Amino acid sequence: MKKVSFKTLGCRLNQYETDALVTRFHNAGYQVVDYSRPADITVINTCTVTNQSDQKSRNTINQAVRKNPGGLVVVTGCMANHYHEQLEKDGKIAYVVDNERKSQIVSLVDAHFKGEIVDPGTYTGDRFGFETVEKSLHTRTSIKIQDGCDQFCTYCIVPSVRGRAVSRPLDKILDNVKKVVDNGFKEIVITGVNIGRYNQGSCNFECALEKVIELEGDFRVRISSLEPDGFGPGFHRLFRHPKMTPHLHLCIQSGSDPILRKMRRMYTTRSFMEIVETFRNNIPDFNFTTDVIVGFPGESAQDFNETVRVVREARFSHIHTFRYSRRKGTRADRMEDQLTERIKTERSEVIRGISEENRLYYMKSMIGKSQRVLIEKVNKERMASGYGEHYLPVKFEASDAARNRFREVKLVAVDRSVEPFMRGTVL
User: Which residue, 33, 139, 180, 34, is CA-closest to 377?
Assistant: First the structure.
């Protein structure tokens, strides 16, 4: 039995696709081992959204080659699309597989070990050609409903490496959900590149989501990441359904309207804040997290101060902060007034500080309230840890705790020993 390991960088979509590959390799008779252990095959699922992502992906590839001399290294993901020819010239990489053919990696590896001459480019591309996840590296699993993007934000390379937007047929989505629930998964994450643009016939994103939560079974639904123009004014009503988790990662990117226009984002800070206010007026404890890009070309001190004001006002409990990264082929790369790395670093530190303040504020506001925690780990001391429906990390003692089970827990304190988390007691 040959051993295979995986390393995933980047977004939830990559994580989902890795989990689907784990299932396919497992079903094909391979032994899935942790990335830290020696393996006959190592699959690196890369990211290329920023220069930092490129560097992490390159370092990971080099590490895999050193760690498994003589092993088969397969590189896939967005970097495989963006730097395909360059990676193929690296004699230490066995195969470079683009996103369109990622689902065919197991067939490719099988053919390799049968002694066949393999060209990944000859395999049929299918962006939804992944099997239902059975064996996962995580307690939750994702459902891919969409791929690609037609937005063409001026800073973003994703349309070039993921292709144009395409939506998965609704019946395939619902069948996928039913199967993963039957496989024992309790939390389903709806994912894609730009899921708000889902469109299959007369069914849009909200329609598809409503069909998912109407399915039978003891599971809950979380949304991976969403653009603020991907739904209508009544979207908040869906979150009253008991299967929906009251949390959204809603991407704002900047709090300055002039910068949003330069980014080619299709909303204003006012329209964004109206969404936040509508949700919280209807669901008071609703948790928002977001992405922010600092140091975009031409971002003045005033523009940045507007972003500071908005992220404080919105009280995002986490802000994934990016320093603007120039990507060749994008319009922003050709813009004047590129900012220095020093300014970007200074501004990112400010936003990260606000993120920590907001996070502690939100956590403290939840003390005394209950959460339905999905247990991810149980240590030897019977201390269980997992996430509540509001996407808060929770730890609690429970003699009968078991992985991948729900427990009702009362939140009693915020623990700031390392990464902040909530302490709870079983109800």
Answer: 139
As to burial, measured by CB atoms within 10 angstroms (0-12 exposed, 13-18 middle, 19+ buried), residue 333 is middle
Residue scoring higher pLDDT (244 or 138):
244
pLDDT in tens, 289-320: 999 999 999 999 999 999 999 999 999 999 99
Between β-strands 287-294 and 247-249, what pairing exists: parallel, antiparallel or unpaired?
A: parallel
Of 415, 414, 402, the residue nearest 374 (C-alpha)? 402
Band (pLDDT 50/70/90 cuts) for residue 287 is very high
- Quick one: tokens of 158? 């994703």
CA distance 4 to 410: 41
Task: For domain 248-365, give the CATH number.
Answer: 3.30.750.200
The more confidently predicted of residues 178 and 127 is: 178
What pLDDT digit, counting tens, does each position of 132-185 carry?
A: 777 665 678 999 999 999 989 999 998 889 888 999 999 999 999 999 999 899
3.40.50.1000, 3.40.50.300, 3.40.50.12160, 3.40.50.720: CATH of 3-122: 3.40.50.12160
- Predicted TM-score of the model (pTM): 0.89
> Which residue is listed with tokens 């063409």?
152
Q: Residue 393 forms beta bridges with which residues?
A: 387
Length of the chain: 427
Question: CB within 8 A of 130, min separation 6: which ones?
Answer: 16, 17, 20, 21, 24, 103, 144
pLDDT band at 119 (very low <50, low <70, confident <90, very high): confident
The answer to whether 265 and 151 are in contact (CB under 8 A) is no
Domain 370-426 has CATH 1.25.40: no
- Domain ranges across the chain: 3-122, 139-245, 248-365, 370-426
CA 165/CA 192 separation, integer angstroms = 10
Backbone angles phi, psi at 142, to 5 degrees: -105, 155
HSE-up (13 A, CA, CB side) for residue 53: 25
Mean pLDDT of 397-404: 89
CB 78 within 8 A of CB 46: yes
Q: Which CATH architecture has domain 139-245?
A: 2-Layer Sandwich (3.30)
